[in-house]
Amino acid sequence: MKKNPLKLIIAALIISASLGIQSCSEDEYSIITIPAIGIAQDPGNFKGDIPSGQTVTLDPTQTYQLTGSVVIKNGGKLVIPAGTRIVATVGASAFVIVEQGGQLFANGTSGSPVLFTSSDKTAGSWGGIVVCGKAPINVGPSATSEIGNSMYGGTDTADTSGSLSFVRVEYAGAVYTGDKKFNGLSLFGVGNTTKVENVALVNGGDDGIQLYGGTVNVSNIVSLANDNNAFVWSEGWKGTASNIFTKRKADGTGNTGIKGMNNPNNQNAAPRSNPTIKNVTFIGGTTGEADAIQLKSGTYANLENVVISNWNTGVNLESDSTVAYFNGKKRMKDIFFDSNVTTKVSAKSSAGNNVAILDSTYIEKADATGAGNGIATPAWATGWSGLQ
User: What is the domain count for the chain?
Assistant: First the structure.
């Protein structure tokens, strides 16, 4: 029987395609090796600069010993995959800083967060994470960060410094110099295309998270058992903070839930701090600065869906311009003050005189949900953040 050459060619093509498909299927199960370049080549001595044009990607199967500063320079990128552990040695020399134009991509998952921790599991035993962007600030056209000594600020509201998602930072807050300490996460002039969500700042030696101007938006933030304030802003921050859960240490020590400021040296400096704060819960204590929310130095803000429990004062307003902005203006609404809050709202002028709180300064809501579950841990925060 004579064979048809065309049929033979078609049959050969089908067999070849089948083998190709089988080969691809098997490749899906192969292990992808991440090439170690630059400062990633020695996980036991992780430190140094990431220069312009270089992208360093860490291997999530490794544990990286942060033995000094990691500096992401303008044009450099550091990529930290889900599940990566970075363990800092003791001292202020161990920290991560993103300079203007650099980018940090630390993207974990709820089941496999990126973890920054310390070999000495005590508050303030290493530095922290510092990010410097090009968005507006009100202490000048630009400035030098008080920790890290890097330039920040500018005119680019949409500047991007990368992405932080499902990241937990533990035991940060070492003394940088003099009376200046690292925070868990410090955002200096960071722009609004930088992603900051699902970030936990735990057992720190100073503030949990602090924003120095900029336009960045943050969401799903846990600030837990830090020595100082849980959430701080100043220098003209204009952004949104949503789903924020803060809680003092088990012994009740610490300071404020929120400390919001404009500019301590010029309460009317522009751009003025004026964030939107919504869906937040503050669990506190009655020692130290026992205000759940302290708004001062000319800051504005709008607050919505707030739960406050176990504080001497729920909201403390200070400085003439801040008091004038809030007093009688309904800019704090859907607030639940637990029965253990001694004073719901108080106000003082710039001269330190008590100011009477006018009607409709705040609107209460008995069933406000705050960060999602009233005074209890919200579902979005369980597990990855250290909360159960």
Answer: 1
Identify whether 33 is part of a domain: no
Averaged pLDDT, 25-45:
75
Domain assignment present for residue 8? The answer is: no
* Structure-block tokens of residue 39: 């400062």
Range of the domain at 81: 42-381
Residues 6+ apart with CB under 8 A from 59: 34, 36, 40, 43, 81, 84
Q: At a CB cut-off of 8 Å and minimum separation 6, what does 352 contact?
A: none
SS3 296: strand
Say whether 284 sits in a helix, a strand or coil.
coil
Tell me if residue 16 falls in helix, strand or coil: helix
Report the candidate in 332, 353, 352, 108 with the shortest Cα–Cα distance to residue 344: 332
Residue 365, SS3 per DSSP = coil
Task: Find, among 100, 256, 95, the residue nearest to 184 by Cα.
Answer: 95
Q: What's the CA gap between 296 and 222, in Å, rounded?
A: 23
4 domain-assigned: no
Residue 362 lies in a domain: yes
The b/e string for 207-234 (b: 16+ C-beta within 10 A; e otherwise) is bbbbbbbbbbbbbbbbbbbbbbbbbbbb
For residues 24 and 96, give the distance between their C-alpha atoms in angstroms, rounded to a whole number. Answer: 39
Any idea which residue has 């400390």 for tokens?
Answer: 259
Q: Which has the higher per-residue pLDDT, 69 or 25?
A: 69
Cβ 355 vs Cβ 319: under 8 Å: no
Residue 264: asked if its preceding bond is cis (omega within 30°), the reply is no
d(CA 67, CA 62): 15
**pLDDT exceeding 70 applies to what percent of the chain?**
92
Residue 345 binned pLDDT confidence (cut-offs 50, 70, 90)? very high
Contacts of 366 (CB under 8 A, 6+ apart): 336
Question: What is the domain-level CATH number for residue 258?
Answer: 2.160.20
pTM of this prediction?
0.92
Residue 348: enclosing H or E segment and its boundaries?
strand 343-348
Residue 164, Cβ neighbours under 10 Å: how many?
Answer: 25
Q: Which two tokens stand for residue 283?
A: 């669990």
